[in-house]
Amino acid sequence: MRAKKSKQNEKNKQHRLNIGLAQMLKGGVIMDVVTPEQALLAEQAGACAVMALERVPSDIRASGGVARMSHVKLIESICNSVTIPVMAKVRIGHFVEAQILESIGVDYIDESEVLTPADEEFHITKHDFKTPFVCGARNLGEAVRRIHEGASMIRTKGEAGTGDVVEAVRHMRAINREIEALQKMNPAKLKKFALESKVPISLIEDIRKKKQLPVVNFAAGGIATPADAALMMQLGSEGVFVGSGIFKASKNKKDQMALAKSIVMSVTSFNDPDILKKVSREIISTMKGQSVSNLQNIEKLSLRGK
Amino acid sequence: MKKLSTNKIIIGILSLQGDFKEHSIALEKLNIQHINVRKKNDLDQIDGLIIPGGESTTIIKLLKRTKLFDLVQKKIFNGLPTWGTCAGAILLAKKVTNMDQQTLKILDIEIERNGYGRQANSFTEEVHIGTNKKTTFPGIFIRAPKIKKITKNISCVGMLSNKEIVAIEYKNIFATTFHPELTDDLSMHEYFIKKIVNKDLGSL
Q1: B71 partner at 20 to 30 Å CA-CA among A3, A52, A266, A291?
Q2: Which residue in chain B has the smallest CA separation from A14?
Q3: Residue predicted with more confidence, A2 or A174
Q4: Low-confidence ranges of chain B (pLDDT < 70)
Q5: For this structure, is B110 an active site residue?
Q6: Which residues of chain B neighbour A16 with C-beta distances below 8 Å?
Q7: Domain B4-197 is classified in which CATH homologous superfamily?
Q8: Quick one: which H or E segment has residue A280?
Q9: Is B181 marked active-site?
């Protein structure tokens, strides 16, 4: 009994540390990178973390096939190339890929809808891991399910690889609106919401009381410009993931650096139009993008993993 | 919680990146006025500065890009009471031992970035405060730096049970390699206001 209790205590401490790392990332930009060189560029541009990947989402979208966890050697080489935290993605439900990432020693695991789901019924039981997890969510229900499974950071799903911010906006607004709606619910309705979301009522009550998620909430999916990033921040996001946006904007390193720096600054000064104008002037090109409204449901990554 | 009667002072929290909001929540609880520092003129009205946790490489770059770097450095040199937590402690250090990293070069210490390792090696441990071993603080160490060397005139404020120094003080400067802003314990914030900020205000 006592051993069990102390194990739980250890888990709680670890969870606190894991939420804490996400708190350190706040007000920052996490950039997708596919090589150690890109990771260095991201670090020099001022990224607060990088996401190590084999292909950025827009390439995954274009090439089709099954998208899996990146090659171990690639993730290791990116871990060794920068001093900022390194994240990497696993398929939804693929807890063995997560075990491998934990063994590599990545700082955060993204259980991501961008990769092809490995389990259509269950997400990873993230409480079983020491390494923190970030998960995507389209609404409060998805967010609380992931938190209940042990996620220590949430991001909007958005629609990755499109360069279209519309879904990220929709998801951020949905989460905000649903948290707001909790305030007006009576105990019976709260209980119903918890039941429908398949989480304990205590988690819903906690969110209601604090008027925010118990973990950090970033924006992701389709963010391509400094203005997009600042838009998400003004909508209440605590930081931003930029996937394909930077390295798909141009093949030229100088242009990539200009855009990356500009997005970093726009997240810091998201409320200052003069600075947003200034940093927007610095950019040379942005990614072409693909309108989400032209996608069929089957092409939407955000519909994976509810 | 007894509120401190220091309503007149204003603390600036460097708010370029990191957990600056957690510091403002702590100061709020202590009824201390505070502002976010993002631009030059924000520095004009403050009696003390907190450099929060975050990514030190990011914060240093943003200090440069916002042209705050030289001003902040000068203000601290000229006596602005300043507290750095984790990344903030790295920024204050004269030397980072394990990488070529620019800092404000104010505090005569050598510090090792990510001194305990990656996130897998982050930990929580009681910090022993002052000479009285009984006073402890719940230390949260996240990819924390390790203080490798301090000069004689720098005083140790907190250490781990293995004697490793994790909180230091020198004149107007206070540095902790852990994150008091992530706990509900306000005693480190109180310490900064009472001992570092007011001490200096008294001499004006």
Answers
A1: A266
A2: B123
A3: A174
A4: 1-7, 199-204
A5: no
A6: 124, 140, 182
A7: Class I glutamine amidotransferase (GATase) domain (3.40.50.880)
A8: helix A273-281
A9: yes
Of residues B134, B78, B67, the one with CA closest to residue B106: B78
Q: Residues B196, B48: contact at Cβ < 8 Å?
A: yes
Strands (E), chain A: 29-33, 49-52, 86-91, 108-112, 133-137, 153-156, 216-218, 240-242
> What does the pLDDT read at residue A61?
86
pLDDT tens-digit readout, B79-97: 999 999 999 999 999 999 9
CB contact under 8 A, A85 and B113: no
**Whether A27 and B55 lie within 8 Å, measured CB to CB:** no
Q: What is the mean pLDDT of residues A117-126?
A: 97
* Chain B residues near residue A46 by CB distance under 8 angstroms: 17, 57-58, 61-62, 65
Q: Which amino acid is at B96?
A: V
Query: For A181-225, what is each residue's pLDDT tens digit?
Result: 999 999 999 999 999 999 999 999 999 999 999 999 999 999 999
* CA nearest neighbour of A25 among A295, A239, A285: A239
Q: Where are the domains of chain B?
A: 4-197
Which residues of A fall below an 8 Å CB-CB distance to B? Answer: 13, 16-18, 20-21, 23-28, 43-49, 79, 83-85, 102, 105-108, 130-132, 261, 264-265, 267-269, 272
